[in-house]
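This section describes the prediction task in plain terms. A model, or a person checking by hand, is given the sequence of a single protein chain and must write out its three-dimensional structure as a string of tokens. No templates, partner chains or ligands are provided. The sample shown here is typical of the held-out split.
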Amino acid sequence: MDDSPDPDATSDPLDAFDRHRRLLFSVAYQMLGSVADAEDTVQDAWLRWSAADRDHVTDPRAYLVQVITRLAIDRSGTARARRESYVGPWLPEPLITGRDTVAAAPAPTDPTDAAELGEQVSMAVLVVLETLTPAERAVFVLREVFGLPVAEVAEALGRTESAVR
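The expected answer:
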């Protein structure tokens, strides 16, 4: 018999939030394209989490992803409004993670080629994400980047599964 406590059934709200903080930051960054905005959104999510009635939360990870997604969509709308006054093209700031280049591509033998390929792919994805609406970006990030099931993405966005597909 396993007497170990359920990691999400803790009374300390900080433990559950800290367990999912990296995921929350990743979702926010992928949707917003800015480290500062992603960090601010995670902080807003913490405020919502700390004030929430967690007795009715059955899955803290799903709840927090839903909160961060909605906050990022809201923040994305205001970020677009701020960028409308900027004259040049806007590109999201790249986030250096120290990971290898694209996993499906064979690794270039020359480190310079590898760095160049990684930079090109990163910028291409960021530019494509910028062309999507906030809701479309949320669906793309949650489905394609994090591999969440359609039902969970639909729940996070408050939409039907057919609308998310």
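For orientation: Residues 60-83 form the longest helix (24 residues).
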